[in-house]
Amino acid sequence: GLLDRVDSYIFTGALAYSFVRMGVPLFGL
Fold first, then answer.
1. Whole-structure pTM value
2. Nearest 10 degrees: Cα torsion 2, 12, 14, 8
């Protein structure tokens, strides 16, 4: 349903955010 979709987006967004936060210092961006 819609709520499952929103939960999925929130989880994916948090995962991407964590990846970016760890990746930026690593690549020097």
1. 0.55
2. 20
